[in-house]
Specification:
The complex is a heterodimer of chains A (149) and B (141). Helix content of chain A is 26%, strand content 38%. Chain A is of the alpha+beta class. Chain A has one domain (4-147): RNA polymerase II/Efflux pump adaptor protein, barrel-sandwich hybrid domain (OB fold (Dihydrolipoamide Acetyltransferase, E2P)), CATH 2.40.50.100. Chain B has a single domain, classed as Rossmann fold, CATH 3.40.50. Chain B is α/β, with parallel strands linked by helices. The chains are: A alpha+beta (149), B alpha/beta (141).
């Protein structure tokens, strides 16, 4: 169970897990050696609302950092989830097929999307944000969203 | 409202400004105005929120079918907080998952997919209503 950084913006509470790295687009990467588990942040899932469908790139797919690794359809939007790491999709979360609401219910746990065998994790890792840096960015993004009519 | 004349209360979420909320209301109108006007009664969620005595009495006296556009499930929660029983809660998102070709869009006016999704939701409500009415009308053993 990770620890969280937490903030309240308007009536919403947003959490950032402290045990992983982040892209500015709201995708997290949790490394276990060279295997990188990937999912979306609490902010991204709350921003886009209930997930209707999640289509994830199948095992064996080669992805570069920044490539789409999943397409999520929510009640508000179609969200393209870009990979924070280059490599090959080694594992797909089977829950995405029948219960993609796991993304809403547990974005940092059961709602993970894929595991990627990284081809150059040290380089990709350096391009990602630490939890505190992402937390500050997310707060700014959340406050900007809250200002929208 | 005269709840004594109706058997099943249909309570859609308010969801103003939300596509799935509009779908829930369109489905409720279809059931209560077109498909089963004799055996259903529309109850506005806003009346329950305001504590309207007639609306609260209606959901307490009759089974309710709620239609919710999102996981907050305001309609189901409000029926329960009003002292009513949710005989069946229907989530528009679940119906959409079973009918992916019916992607709803629009808010004030739904696209064709949204209207068809509302029709599909209405069909599910009607089936529930028919079951509840049959149960109420069945002779007691």
């Amino acid at each position: 169970m990770p620890d969280y950084l937490e903030t309240t913006v308007d009536k919403f509470i947003f959490k950032v897990a402290t045990d992983r790295l982040y892209s500015a687009e709201g995708v997290w990467a949790l490394a276990d050696g060279n295997r990188i588990r990937v999912g979306v942040t609490d902010f991204l899932q709350q921003l886009n609302g209930d997930v209707a469908f999640a289509e994830v790139r199948p095992e064996g797919t080669a992805v570069a950092s920044g490539d789409e690794v999943a397409a999520i359809e929510t009640i508000k939007a179609n969200v393209s989830v870009t990979s924070p790491v280059g490599g090959t999709v080694a594992e797909v979360n089977p829950a995405m097929e029948l219960s993609p609401e796991a993304i809403n219910q547990d974005p940092y746990g059961q709602g993970w999307l894929v595991v990627i065998d990284a081809s150059d994790w040290p380089t990709d890792r350096d391009a990602l944000l630490g939890p505190q840096a992402y937390f500050e960015l997310m707060k700014a993004q959340a406050e900007e969203e809250a200002q929208k009519p | 409202m005269n709840p004594g004349e109706r058997k099943v209360m249909v309570v859609p979420c308010s969801g103003i400004g939300k596509t799935y909320g509009t779908v829930s209301r369109e489905a409720a109108y279809e059931v209560t105005e077109d498909q089963r006007p004799q055996s259903t009664q529309l109850v506005a969620l806003s009346l329950l929120v305001l504590g309207d005595a007639d609306a609260r009495a209606a959901v307490r006296a009759h089974p309710a079918v709620t239609i919710d556009g999102c996981k907050l499930a305001c309609a189901a929660k409000m029926v329960q907080e009003s002292g009513g029983q949710v005989a069946q809660g229907i989530a528009v998102l679940d119906v959409y998952r079973r009918n992916r070709q019916l992607k709803p869009q629009g808010i004030a006016e739904l696209n064709e997919g949204g209207l068809q999704l509302a029709h599909a939701v209405a069909g599910e409500i009607t089936a529930v209503v028919d079951g509840l009415v049959a149960r109420e009308e069945a002779p007691h053993a």
